[in-house]
Each structure stands twice: as structure tokens, then as C-alpha cells.
Design a protein that fits this description.
The chain is mainly alpha-helical. The protein is built from 11 helices and no strands.
Length: about 260
């Protein structure tokens, strides 16, 4: 018998209150042109100005082009990174020799920021669209890969030994022991990878794009439309948070046993 859990209204009120306080402080600082020495609000638009700019953006015919372009690039690069990251993570996590061979170049490439990849991506791919998808791919790949490796390596050896003693095949071992045991780490890597893919995409769009939220934000800066800069930042944050939240929800639905273990 399932028990009904009431929504935590107090938690939602505290979150809404913290956002309201931040907006109020922001409004006061921008209205008073507050100058703190290291930080100044003289040129920072107020929330009221940003809200007016947001209304204009949401009524603009370019809204769909900007948002759809960013979403297509993110999900294209992210999907490739998810397949490659999970596949290579499973192989590296299960084989020490393969891990020794592949982890060294991957660890060398991992710290390279997205901006540094852009000139090479422009030279490697025939179109700027493919180069931006590649930048998104590089951003999402490493969190997914490393979390998959750690998840596979963290599977209880007793479960593997028990499966072997029962005559488990490699396929059954993979799908019935390794993947379920590594699933929580894989889901975490997928959620982190989505956030980093948005970060990398926006960087690429600022330099190589013609449409997209990153391009919209950079264009607003070059035209000195300061409220639109913050609109672009907020849209990026909402899209990134929404996609990561959706991935976590899907992941939790696919691994219900993790909730049971946490609740114990």
C-alpha cells in the first residue's frame, strides 16, 4: 500500500523567499548605482529593465530560431557524448589494460577548455554547425565517461563473484550486474554532462554562431543592450537547469531501487 506524501510547502516558500530577496537587493543596488570598489552596479540593469527586455524577447520572431538552434546543437552533441561516454566507460571500467591504454590521452584532453577547441574545430569540420556540435560533445563527454568508469569500478565485487559462480554469461553480467550497479553514477554523469554541454555550446555560439542563445547574448553585449545580456543568461540557466532536472527525473525512474536503498 502506497502512502501519500504531502508537498513540502515550507521548502517552496523558503526558495521563493530567497529569490525574492535577491531580486530586491539587485533592484536596490542597480537603482542606487551602488559602487563597492571592486564591484559596481552603475551599468547593471535593474530587474524591471530585464523583465521588460524579456517580454520583448519572448514576443520576438527570432525567439524560436535562437532557442531551437541551441537545443538542436546541445542534444546532438550530448547524445553522441552519452553513447560514447557510457560505452567507453564500461570498457575502461571492466578492463584494466584498456583503461591503461585509453585513460592517459583522455586525461590529457580533459582539462582543455571549450574555448581552446574552437579554432581546431573550425579547421576540422566543414561547417560552423558541426564545429559547435563537436564543442558540445567535448564538454559532455568527460563527465559521463569518468562517472561511468567510477560507477563500474564501484560495483560490489561480491556481486560479480556470485554471478560468475552461477554461470553468468558476459551479456548477463553486463546487463544484470554491472549496469544496474553503475547506474547511479552514470545518471549523475549524464546530469553533469548536460550542464557542461550548455556551457561549452554558449561559448562556441558566441564565436561561431549566427543563431542561438549564446549568440543572442554576445550580440546584445556588442550592441550594448545590457538588459538583453541578462535575459540571455537567464534563458541559458533555465534551459540548462530544466534539461538537467529532466535527466535526473528520468534516471530516478529507471533506477527505483536506488531510492529504496537511500530510504533505508
Amino acid at each position: 500500500m502506497t502512502t501519500w506524501t504531502h508537498p513540502d510547502y515550507g521548502s517552496w516558500l523558503r526558495r521563493a523567499g530567497s529569490i525574492a530577496i535577491c531580486l530586491l537587493l539587485w533592484q536596490m543596488a542597480s537603482t542606487l548605482r551602488l559602487d563597492l570598489g571592486l564591484v559596481t552596479f552603475r551599468n547593471v540593469p535593474s530587474p524591471v529593465e530585464v523583465f521588460a527586455a524579456a517580454l520583448g524577447f519572448f514576443q520576438s520572431p527570432k525567439l524560436f530560431a535562437h532557442v531551437s538552434s541551441s537545443l538542436e546543437r546541445v542534444f546532438a552533441g550530448y547524445a553522441i557524448a552519452a553513447v560514447a561516454g557510457i560505452a567507453f566507460g564500461l570498457i575502461i571500467g571492466r578492463s584494466r589494460h584498456v583503461g591503461d591504454f585509453l585513460l592517459a590521452p583522455l586525461e590529457l584532453l580533459r582539462p582543455i577548455p571549450a574555448v581552446a577547441w574552437i579554432p581546431l574545430a573550425v579547421l576540422m569540420f566543414p561547417s560552423s554547425e558541426l564545429s559547435m556540435i563537436f564543442i558540445t560533445f567535448t564538454g559532455a563527454l568527460f563527465p559521463i565517461l569518468l562517472n561511468t568508469v567510477h560507477g563500474v569500478e564501484g560495483v560490489d565485487p561480491r556481486l560479480i563473484a556470485a554471478a560468475k559462480s552461477l554461470g553468468s554469461t558476459r551479456r548477463a553480467m553486463l546487463f544484470e550486474v554491472i549496469l544496474p550497479g553503475a547506474a547511479p553514477s552514470i545518471v549523475t554523469g549524464l546530469a553533469i554532462g548536460m550542464g557542461t554541454s550548455w556551457f561549452c555550446l554558449v561559448t562556441a555560439e558566441m564565436i561561431s554562431g549566427q543563431f542561438g542563445i549564446g549568440y543572442y547574448t554576445w550580440e546584445a553585449y556588442t550592441l550594448q543592450n545590457y538588459p538583453e545580456i541578462i535575459v540571455g543568461m537567464v534563458v541559458i540557466g533555465v534551459l540548462g537547469m530544466g534539461s538537467s532536472t529532466l535527466l535526473r527525473a528520468l534516471g530516478n525512474a529507471l533506477i527505483p531501487w536506488q531510492k529504496k536503498e537511500t530510504a533505508r
